[in-house]
Design brief:
The complex is a heterodimer of chains A (about 325) and B (about 300). Chain A has about 325 residues and is mainly α. Chain A has 13 helices and two strands. The chains are: A mainly alpha (about 325), B mainly alpha (about 300). Chain A: InterPro entries: MetI-like (IPR000515), MetI-like_sf (IPR035906).
């Protein structure tokens, strides 16, 4: 569930589904038992079975239960009751879902635009490029909690940036970005943007470096402007990388709760609560495991559905590649 | 004999050292004017660096000062978080978790990745698909069932719970990547080693592994940075003070009633230093490493 998974490998997997892989031609010497690949895969398989597959099924199981460790007398089979409650009796579910959608959309599109611009700039040849690249990419390695720490320092009304700006005559004293319902969204968006842009920049830069220089030269000879070159050479080349990286990032932004949990803890007044954050709050603090499990199931299905839809609509791995 | 085996350096992995050479590469097509590079880059650098500077400023200047330059410098805040707020223990714990889950991820992913890259077997495609699908499973939403599992295994409040959880969620991607890297190494190289009498395992160690180095560095540091940073598993599975990791410690500082900004900033610096160092080493391998993992159509 990493931050920053590389793009092209999904591609590799997909490409592989289509083409038969050429197997290393080796003489059978009877020394490699047929079970060897399974033995090699066993550790990974067991870990994933035990700690991904099994918990998934237990989430499904709990979602049909009334399960609360602090109220054991109520526990028991609940059928689809949890789901009925989610969809008909829980306005906060819809609020968090809407906020999640808004959060993911705004974050991913802004990160993509800035990341693409940054990658295009850094792909140029200029003095100080290596240093600029290292500096610009550095927030990539920073955690959500650390990002919150840094931005809480910056947003602090009495010692943060706004105070010094007010000293210089810009804005007002006592502006508290994170406590004001009007500014908290953008305050959080900017903080997340700060560490999210490098992810796109890194992945897009990796893909940019595989564009053949001859193409640009030929286009240049034909008199195509750089803007045209961008739209006709660069962008089509990057398409699959962009589709996959936006998808991975969207999933990641949807799922990741570190930043909002520590920066705003969903507040003020539940305004910045994403669906997973709501799940974490019901499950951890409210101890309503059954309900949290049902919410998890709903979130997972929504995520999967949106991902498939996105891949379909974007014609991933389309014909022009 | 091993020397003979390692000599053929084929075109498999792109050389990681690229920054120096880039200057020599003169492009014949038109380049943008310099200001179109430096102006946006400068603006973006300010956006990137001011927050870092702000943290350093608070961590280094004396309490009560509101100067914008951390002068005179004080180590007071660092001493405080390190000695009084338990960051010395958190640091060791985080290192332990980071390094252990990195090694576990690499080991398991190498073994599985090799199987996926070099063998054709019935479960191969289903397994690949499962790896890909697991990317969509929200780790945060698995907290409750994982908590129950670790309770059954009596691993709660042991660093191993976090190490296992981090490894498991790192695995799918690491394995996809590493199997991509291995596929880029021509099988003929290994076959030559077999002809020379190497076992499959020795051939792998002597021929394939050295060629995987850039990729392994990328994947390994990825895993380290991720588990160093990750917060929710540690928050949920570890509950005694002496088992906490740095992100949880930071969160405690953030949540205390009267937030000590100096200590908070110093804690932030402690959290940032290892990942920044790792990042400084790997950032130029990151791009080549990831490009190498890809199979271009």
């Amino acid at each position: 569930m990493g931050r920053g998974p590389p793009v092209e490998n999904g591609e590799a997997v997909m490409a592989e589904a289509a083409t038969e892989r050429t197997r290393p031609r080796r003489r059978r010497r009877g020394r490699t038992p047929r079970s060897l690949p399974y033995v090699l895969l066993a550790p990974a398989g067991l870990l994933m079975l035990g700690f991904i597959a099994y918990p998934m099924f237990s989430v499904l199981y709990y979602s049909l239960q009334d399960y609360n460790v602090t109220k054991p007398w109520r526990n028991g089979f609940a059928g689809l009751e949890n789901f009925r409650e989610i969809f008909t009796d829980d306005p906060f579910f819809w609020e968090t879902l809407a906020f999640s959608a808004k959060w993911v959309f705004v974050e991913v599109s802004l990160q993509l635009v800035f990341g693409l611009a940054l990658a295009l700039i850094i792909n140029q040849t200029f003095i100080g490029r290596a240093a600029a690249r290292a500096l610009v990419f550095s927030p990539w390695a920073v955690s959500g909690v650390l990002t919150s720490t840094i931005w809480i320092l910056l947003y602090n009304p009495s010692t943060g940036l706004s105070r010094y700006l007010a000293d210089a005559g810009i804005g007002e004293y006592g502006t508290s970005v994170l406590a004001d319902t009007g500014t908290v969204f953008w305050g959080a968006v900017i903080a997340e943007l700060w560490r999210g842009v490098p992810f796109f920049a890194i992945l897009i830069l990796a893909d940019l470096q595989s564009v053949s220089k001859d193409l640009y030269e030929a286009a240049s000879v034909d008199g195509a402007s750089r803007v045209r070159q961008f739209f006709h050479i660069t962008l089509p080349h990057l398409r699959d990388a962009i589709v996959l990286s936006t998808l991975l990032r969207a999933v990641w932004e949807f799922n990741n709760v570190d930043l909002l949990y520590t920066l705003t803890n969903g507040g003020p007044a539940g305004q910045t609560t994403t669906l997973p954050l709501y799940v974490a709050q019901t499950g951890i603090h409210g101890n309503e495991f059954g309900y949290a499990a049902a919410l998890t199931t709903v979130a997972f299905v929504i995520l999967l559905f949106c991902s498939i839809l996105y891949l379909r609509l974007s014609k991933f791995g389309g014909d022009d590649k | 004999m091993t020397a003979a085996l390692t000599t053929p350096q084929p075109v498999v992995t792109p050389p990681p050292s690229e920054p120096g050479g880039s200057r020599k590469r003169r492009r014949s097509y038109d380049e943008p004017p310099r200001w179109q590079i430096y102006l946006p880059l400068g603006v973006y650098l300010v956006f990137t660096l001011v927050p870092f500077y702000w943290m350093l400023l608070f961590a280094l200047r004396e309490p009560g000062s509101d100067s914008l330059v951390p002068w005179p410098i004080t180590g007071e805040h660092f001493a405080k978080v390190w000695n009084e707020r338990g960051f010395d223990t958190y640091f060791v714990n985080s290192m332990y978790v980071g390094i252990a889950s990195m090694l576990m991820t690499l080991l398991v992913a190498l073994s599985g990745g090799y199987a996926l890259a070099r063998f054709k077997f019935r479960m191969r495609m289903p397994f690949m698909l499962a790896l890909l699908c697991s990317q969509f499973i929200p780790g945060a939403l698995m907290l409750v069932p994982l908590f129950e599992i670790f309770r059954e295994l009596t691993l709660l409040n042991s660093l191993w719970s976090v190490i296992i959880a981090e490894t498991v969620f790192q695995l799918p991607l690491s394995m996809i990547l590493i199997s991509g890297f291995i596929r880029n190494v021509p099988p003929s190289l290994e076959e030559q080693a077999w002809v020379d009498g190497c076992s499959r395992f020795r051939a792998f160690l002597a021929v394939v592994l050295p060629l995987l180095r850039p990729g392994l560095v990328a994947v390994g540091s990825f895993a380290f940075v991720h588990s160093w940073n990750h917060f929710l598993f540690a928050l949920m599975f570890l509950n005694s003070q002496d088992k906490q990791t740095i992100p949880v410690g930071l969160n405690t500082l953030l949540g205390s009633d009267s937030v000590d900004l100096g200590a908070l900033a110093a804690g932030g610096v402690v959290a940032a230093v290892p990942v920044v160092i790792v990042f400084a080493f790997i950032q130029r391998w990151l791009i080549t490493g990831f490009s190498a993992g890809a199979v271009k159509g």
